[in-house]
Structures are given as structure tokens and as C-alpha cells.
């Protein structure tokens, strides 16, 4: 900011500033609102309409069972909270919620730890190694989830998978023909690998940028005062990164909570019960078997569950905004 | 790791403490991590250049002779992939253009000449990203069915626009906020109107930011699969959707499927590779100023 101020043309910034102050209330009246209106309208239509629809559906009773998709649903009778009662008293739902919570927690923690590790590493290696690693991370970040899921599926496949072959080379380990997807826990571990693999690049790159903002002098000073690398990281780097970490954590929670493609395609479109997270469960109930009122209810509950995280997220975000 | 830390004190006497042995170890770790991350992609690309016989061996035949058979099979096989790739391109490019057309004025009205309570507006934009897309799938499917927009590429254009718009406004705001106000003031004293300022000052100065924003929007739209798969059928299928059905039907022909996956990823891989520094800037979520 200071740099741009000194670089500004010197033709009397005094009068210019004064004229701006004078003009401001008059001219900025309507124009900015007109400029922002289209974007707000688009989002209102595309977000609020479905939101209204899903809440409406969750409060309606489904009439014609399997064939319900063929009528618009507008005339369905009001059912109050009956759908919510059905879903909340279903033990399958709670099993799915527990699985989703564990899956989300493991994925978020793993991707953040690896992300921070790589970010710190990026600041300690030579320029050449850094540029190469960043190039690799961007390469990975750009790969579509369809493709990454498919590649991991091959790598872990029981017949020709390279992972089984490599593990089998370790003495005492027999992994020949091991089926990773027979046990949902192992299968979800493979899916975690895909999700973390895809999530780390963004985290590492933005955290690396965040660490780059810390003045070198502070790090040097800490080192001169005899701080170990760990102490420097804990006492200097982490506090500075805290706001960014909060943003990234919350975003990761939302993303990993809603993971869909990786599970769906790892199980070739038919996730077994042991693989179902909330997103999958909602989809297969709502769209897959056309119980769209129950599906909508699951969706509403899912969003309510995220509201708490949202509030936390936004509060932190605006605290950062104030700090700037 | 422990070795790297332990050797530290002994190298203390070096002239350049920064280039200590520890950094060499870190360098090695960085290379190993890079290799681990890139191996799945390289595996796919390498397999796509192998013959089907070499692709389906255990252990994987890394050094097998290279061939273009997989690609030839993919393009001249039963299904023509071009319409699907064209659909992807239409949806990604159109939505990116619309996003920029909506986001730049909105970002202007949140930074250079802010509306009152612009933080609330930014909050509104962001809050729309908080809804898990999977939850929107069902109502959007029903609405699309009602207004006869299923299997229509323009439905995807609208959806991708609204998915990327909040990110684009946030990114563009941070870029526009960096434009020195004095330049705009000088221009408006000289009588330059808003359009002229946009064309001659704001857009040229924030060009790197616009490039970063549009690349990220393009990559997100190109890779989107959830909505594309549920909301398209035959005529509006996108590349990634086509790939999933191709995998289902041709999954046994690994080389051919790897060729297909490589082709589908190619545009985003090129985009990501060609504009690295811009993407780093964009992905830093405004942490870098």
C-alpha cells in the first residue's frame, strides 16, 4: 500500500482527495448498487430457489411412492415434521452421521498436517526444489476428481494394482491379490488417500504464501535468542498463520463433509452401506430411489449441521478483515 | 528428519548457516514428496502410451515400448469423444466469461466505490459457498425437470456461474483493492467515465488478477462432475461424465482408459502448468498482498 502511495502522480493529491470527498455522497449513490445487483440476483435465484424448494420438500408428505418423481410435488400435502421424525429415529442415519464425522475429521487433520509440513518445507529448500514442488502441486490440484479417483482405484486394485505389488516386496508382508475394498474401513482409507492427495496442494500453497508473509527478521531474531526450529514454528510461525489456518480448516471441513465423487466412483456407482456418508446417503435416498421428501429432509439436516461451522468460519473471517 | 536436526550444531561453524546440511536433507524430502504426489498422474500418462498387453501386467511394466494405440483406439473407437469435450469447453468458457462480467462490477462496488455495508454483501457471496453442493442436487434436479432444462448445457453454464461467482468476487475484490485510488481520481478529474476507467485503467492494471480468476473458474467448471452427471443425459454430457461412463464400459482396457483420462485432464493440466504464478497468487486466498 505504501509503495503505491509514493508511486501516485504528484499532480496535487490534495485537491483530488478533497474533490473525492465532496463527490462521494452524491455520485456513489446509485451506480455501485446497479453494478452489484446482477451478481446478487443470479445468486439469489440459483441458491435461494433450491433452498426454498428443499425446505418445502422436507415438510411435505410423499404421495405416490416410487413414481413420485413424475409429478411436480407442488400439490403434496403438508406433513409437518413427520419426515424429520422418520429420519432422526432411523439408526442407519445415525450410523451414516457417525461415519461422516469420523471420515471428515481424519481427512481434515491429515490434509492440514501434510499441508503445513509441505508449506514449511517449501520455505526451507532451494529455489529450484521449491519451484518444482509447487509445479507438481499445481499439476495435482488441477487433476479432475474423476481421474484421480480412477487412477487410485487402479493403483489399489487387487489383481494388477501397483500398491499390492510394492507392499508384497516387503519381507513378511503378503499382499498379493489383497482386496482393499472388501472391508469398508480399508476402502475408506484408500478414498481418504485420494481426498487428501487432492486437498493438500491448495492447503500447502496458500500456507506457504502465508509463511512467506512473516518477516525474515523475526525468524532470525528467534533463532538468535536460541529458539529451536520447533519453538520458532510453535511461537512465531503458527500464531501468524492462525487466521489463515482457521479459514482453511473450516473450508476443509465443508469440502470433506460433502465428499461425493471419490466415494461414488471408487465404488463404481454402487456404494455399499459401509461406504455411505451423508452426501451419498442423501443422494441414494433422494434421487436414487426417488424418496425425495426424505432425501430433502436429510439435506436440510446436513445443512443445519454445517450452520454451526459456518458461523464460526465467518466470525473468524471478519476478525481477519478487521486486522487488515 | 532427526538426523537433519542432529547434524545442525556440528555445521554451526559454516560461513553460510542458511545452506547447512539440514537444507540438503530438506531438499531430499521435498523431492521425495514431489515424486509421491506426481506418481499417480505420471502412472496414468505412462500407461496411456503402453499397449494393452503391457498395461495389464503385474508388476507394472514401466519400461515397456511406447505406442499411440491407446489414443488411436480412443478417438476412432465406437464412441466419438469430441461432442463431450466440446460440451465441457462450452460450459467452462461461457460460465467463466459470465462470471467475470458479473464479478468485476460487483468487486468494483465492494472495493473502489463501495456500497454501504459492503462487508455484508461479501458475506452473502461467501455464505452461498457454505452449502454443500450435494444438498442442492435434489432440489435443482427437480426444478430443472420442471422448467425443462434437464440435459441442457445452459443449465450447467448457469450452475457453474453461480458456483464460481462468490470465489471470483472475493478474488477480484482483493485485486481491485490494490489499484491506487489516486490514478482513478486523476482520471475522473480529467472527465473519464466509468466505462472508460474500466477499459483503460481497471482492467489493464488488474489483468494478472483477472487471468488468475478466470483460470481458477475454468478449472473448477471443467472438473465439475456432480451436477454434470445428474443433470445431463445424452446431448449435454461433459468430458468428465463421458469419462466415467467410458470407464464403466471399457474399464478392462487400461491403456485406452488412461488415454481417455489423460485427454480429459489435458486442458486443465495445461492451464495449471502454463499459469503457475498466477494460480499461486489466486489460490493464496488473498493471503499475499
List keywords for this structure.
heterodimer, A: 324 residues, mainly alpha, MetI-like fold, globular, B: 289 residues, 2 domains, 15 helices, disordered N terminus
Q: Mind explaining what this structure looks like?
A:
- The complex is a heterodimer of chains A (324) and B (289).
- Chain A has 324 residues and is an all-alpha fold.
- Chain A has 14 helices and no strands.
- Chain A has a single domain (82-323), classed as Orthogonal Bundle (MetI-like fold), CATH 1.10.3720.10.
- Chain B has 2 domains: 24-67, no CATH class; 84-283, Orthogonal Bundle (MetI-like fold).
- Chain B has 15 helices and no strands.
- In chain B, 45% of the residues are buried.
- Mean pLDDT of chain B is 82; it is low at 1-17.
- Chains A and B meet through helix 1, helix 2, helix 3, helix 5 and helix 6 of A and helix 2, helix 5, helix 6, helix 7 and helix 8 of B.
Quick overview of this protein structure:
By secondary structure, chain A is mainly alpha-helical.
Provide the CATH top-level class of the largest domain in chain B: Mainly Alpha
Shape of chain B: globular
Oligomer: heterodimer
Q: What composes the largest sheet of chain A?
A: none
Stretches with pLDDT under 50, minimum 5 residues of chain B = 1-17
The figure for the number of domains of chain A is 1
Succession of helices and strands of chain B: HHHHHHHHHHHHHHH
Total number of strands of chain B: 0
Instruction: Summarize the largest interface: chains and residue counts.
Output: A-B, 110 and 102 residues
Q: From the alpha carbons, calculate the radius of gyration of chain B and give it in angstroms.
A: 24 Å
Order of helices and strands of chain A: HHHHHHHHHHHHHH
Remind me, CATH topology of chain A? MetI-like fold
Radius of gyration of chain A: 26 Å
Distance between the termini of chain B: 33 Å
Mean pLDDT of chain B: 82
Q: Which residues of chain A form runs of ≥5 with pLDDT under 50?
A: 1-26, 65-70
Overall helicity of chain B = over 70%
Amino acid at each position: 500500500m505504501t509503495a503505491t502511495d509514493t508511486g501516485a502522480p504528484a499532480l496535487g493529491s490534495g485537491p483530488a482527495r478533497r474533490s473525492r470527498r465532496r463527490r462521494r455522497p452524491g455520485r456513489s449513490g446509485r451506480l455501485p448498487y446497479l453494478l452489484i445487483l446482477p451478481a446478487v440476483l443470479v445468486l439469489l435465484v440459483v441458491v435461494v430457489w433450491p433452498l426454498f424448494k428443499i425446505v418445502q420438500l422436507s415438510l411435505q408428505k410423499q404421495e405416490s411412492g416410487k413414481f413420485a418423481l413424475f409429478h411436480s410435488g407442488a400439490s403434496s400435502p403438508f406433513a409437518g415434521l413427520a419426515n424429520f421424525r422418520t429420519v432422526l429415529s432411523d439408526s442407519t442415519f445415525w450410523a451414516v452421521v457417525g461415519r461422516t464425522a469420523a471420515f471428515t475429521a481424519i481427512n481434515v487433520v491429515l490434509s492440514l498436517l501434510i499441508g503445513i509440513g509441505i508449506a514449511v518445507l517449501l520455505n526451507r529448500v532451494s529455489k529450484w526444489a521449491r519451484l518444482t514442488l509447487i509445479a507438481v502441486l499445481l499439476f495435482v490440484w488441477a487433476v479432475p476428481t474423476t481421474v484421480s479417483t480412477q487412477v487410485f482405484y487402479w493403483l489399489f486394485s487387487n489383481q494388477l494394482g501397483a500398491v499390492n505389488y510394492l507392499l508384497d516386496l516387503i519381507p513378511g508382508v503378503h499382499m498379493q491379490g489383497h482386496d482393499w475394498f472388501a472391508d469398508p474401513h480399508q476402502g475408506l482409507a484408500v478414498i481418504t488417500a485420494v481426498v487428501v492427495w487432492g486437498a493438500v496442494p491448495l492447503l500447502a500453497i496458500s500456507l506457504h504464501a502465508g509463511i512467506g508473509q512473516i518477516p525474515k527478521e523475526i525468524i532470525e531474531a528467534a533463532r538468535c535468542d536460541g529458539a529451536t526450529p520447533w519453538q520458532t514454528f510453535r511461537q512465531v510461525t503458527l500464531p501468524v498463520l492462525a487466521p489463515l489456518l482457521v479459514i482453511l480448516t473450516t473450508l476443509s471441513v465443508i469440502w470433506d463433509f460433502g465428499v461425493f465423487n471419490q466415494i461414488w466412483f471408487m465404488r463404481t456407482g454402487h456404494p455399499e452401506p459401509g461406504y455411505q456418508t451423508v452426501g451419498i446417503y442423501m443422494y441414494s435416498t433422494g434421487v436414487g430411489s426417488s424418496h425425495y421428501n426424505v432425501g430433502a429432509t436429510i439435506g436440510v439436516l446436513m445443512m443445519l449441521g454445517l450452520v454451526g461451522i459456518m458461523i464460526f468460519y465467518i466470525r473468524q473471517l471478519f476478525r481477519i478483515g478487521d486486522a487488515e | 528428519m532427526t538426523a537433519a536436526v542432529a547434524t545442525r550444531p556440528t555445521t554451526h561453524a559454516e560461513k553460510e548457516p542458511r545452506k547447512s546440511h539440514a537444507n540438503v536433507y530438506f531438499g531430499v524430502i521435498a523431492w521425495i514428496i514431489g515424486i509421491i504426489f506426481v506418481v499417480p498422474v505420471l502412472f496414468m500418462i505412462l500407461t496411456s502410451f503402453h499397449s494393452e498387453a503391457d498395461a495389464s501386467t503385474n508388476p507394472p511394466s514401466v519400461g515397456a515400448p511406447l505406442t499411440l494405440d491407446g489414443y488411436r483406439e480412443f478417438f476412432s473407437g465406437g464412441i466419438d469423444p469430441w461432442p463431450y469435450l466440446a460440451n465441457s469447453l462450452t460450459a467452462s468458457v461461457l460460465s467463466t466469461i459470465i462470471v467475470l462480467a458479473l464479478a468485476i462490477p460487483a468487486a468494483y462496488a465492494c472495493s473502489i466505490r463501495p456500497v454501504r455495508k459492503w462487508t455484508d454483501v461479501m458475506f452473502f457471496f461467501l455464505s452461498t459457498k457454505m452449502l454443500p453442493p450435494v444438498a442442492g442436487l435434489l432440489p435443482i434436479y427437480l426444478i430443472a425437470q420442471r422448467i425443462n432444462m434437464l440435459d441442457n448445457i445452459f443449465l450447467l453454464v448457469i450452475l457453474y456461474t453461480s458456483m464460481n461467482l462468490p470465489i471470483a468476487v472475493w478474488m477480484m475484490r482483493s485485486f481491485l483493492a490494490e489499484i491506487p485510488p489516486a490514478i482513478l481520481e486523476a482520471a475522473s478529474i480529467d472527465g473519464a467515465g466509468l466505462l472508460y476507467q474500466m477499459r483503460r485503467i481497471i482492467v489493464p492494471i488488474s489483468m494478472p488478477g483477472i487471468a488468475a480468476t478466470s483460470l481458477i473458474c475454468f478449472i473448477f467448471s471443467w472438473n465439475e462432475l456432480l451436477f454434470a452427471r445428474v443433470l445431463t443425459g445424452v446431448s449435454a454430457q461433459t468430458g468428465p461424465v463421458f469419462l466415467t461412463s467410458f470407464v464403466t464400459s471399457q474399464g478392462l482396457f487400461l491403456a485406452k482408459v488412461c488415454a481417455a483420462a489423460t485427454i480429459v485432464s489435458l486442458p486443465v493440466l495445461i492451464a495449471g502448468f502454463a499459469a503457475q504464478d498466477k494460480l499461486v497468487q489466486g489460490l493464496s486466498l488473498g493471503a499475499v498482498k
